[in-house]
């Protein structure tokens, strides 16, 4: 037993804390670094996802056509909506196909193909009395039921009828098929 | 004169070993087209990199005229294409190079596949190569929107629908990519940022890893 060891046994064994000085320093330094790193990264992430968290424009109803002019044959109507796209505000033209169903209800379909978003049209040479998409040949019935290619029926505008006029609102999933 | 300048710098910084280490290495006989002409298939990786460099350079110059703004983007592209001297050439390099880089990358992948070069110990390099492939596709997708013409707009709309078809999170991916619910002003700036800063940053990092690994592990042996 050398001198040092003898000396140690003379003392009570020191009860050491769980954490060494090295551990303490690396935790504090690591924590501070992580904190500062997050301080730099979090604002950027929040900045990037901001469009996801912005309040969505509530859709207004727009007057498009007199109710008496709606027939059982779908007809295309154009109307303008006010659109806020960040710093850019515009009044883009929207399209809808309006028709009276066999149940007498007026309904309006969006001409955006549910396959990949091309613009469809009613009753062309390729598909009489059907909606036809020029891109990949999707077809829909008058009620918007997907007959070919497309996975879902055409979206439907919310419809409101007031004083003999048809008003179109936001798009919703098809309720007719 | 250049030799003198080089020696002056080399005396102080000892740069010779650095570039020797990068540039001075043997090319094995089986990958040298001068020995076996069929070895030209080993050039596709280098050609991909060559075209990538052209893409980076021509892209840098295109941003001297281009603005990522929905009102002016088309006109700025039209202007640089038709009014600026050699505009058609510089934009042509970027336009055709974008397709060519995919072709070259595909041929390089085929060569690696059919020579079995992806096998141990080079599996990680194959994986990094695949990541580079996806980054390149992302660069193509984001770059396609930037001229803001009909083709660009509708191609992106279709791309958004594809992104939106991912189960569960598709809607969020779509909105995050588009920077809103429509393909519009915020989509264009977002795609520009991704195309010009984010993906090239990722690409250069992955390329560095790709090249580091091929130098460390060497070219795979002959068939």
From TrEMBL, chain A:
It comes from the Bacteria. Keywords: 2Fe-2S, Disulfide bond, Iron, Iron-sulfur, Membrane, Metal-binding, Transmembrane, Transmembrane helix. Gene3D superfamilies: Rieske [2Fe-2S] iron-sulphur domain. One of its GO terms (molecular function) is metal ion binding. PROSITE patterns: RIESKE, TAT. The keyword Membrane applies. Pfam families: Rieske. Residues 84-168 form the Rieske domain. CDD domains: Rieske. InterPro entries: Rieske_2Fe-2S, Rieske_2Fe-2S_sf, Rieske_Fe-S_prot, TAT_signal. The chain crosses the membrane at residues 24-45. PANTHER family: CYTOCHROME B-C1 COMPLEX SUBUNIT RIESKE, MITOCHONDRIAL. This is Ubiquinol-cytochrome c reductase iron-sulfur subunit. It comes from Cohnella lubricantis.
TrEMBL record, chain B:
One of its GO terms (biological process) is respiratory electron transport chain. SUPFAM superfamilies: Transmembrane di-heme cytochromes (SSF81342). The keyword DNA-binding does not apply. The keyword Signal does not apply. One of its GO terms (cellular component) is plasma membrane. Residues 5-223 form the Cytochrome b/b6 N-terminal region profile domain. Its cofactor is heme c; heme b. It is a multi-pass membrane protein. Keywords: Cell membrane, Electron transport, Heme, Iron, Membrane, Metal-binding, Transmembrane, Transmembrane helix, Transport. The chain crosses the membrane at residues 39-67, 96-114, 126-146, 192-214. It holds the Pfam family Cytochrome_B. InterPro entries: Cyt_b/b6_N (IPR005797), Cytb/b6-like_sf (IPR027387), Cytochrome_b_N_euk/bac (IPR048259), Di-haem_cyt_TM (IPR016174). Its main location: membrane. Component of the menaquinol:cytochrome c reductase complex. PANTHER family: CYTOCHROME B (PTHR19271:SF16). The main subunits of the menaquinol:cytochrome c complex are a Rieske-type iron-sulfur protein (QcrA), a cytochrome b (QcrB) and a cytochrome c (QcrC). This is Menaquinol:cytochrome c reductase cytochrome b subunit. It comes from Cohnella lubricantis.
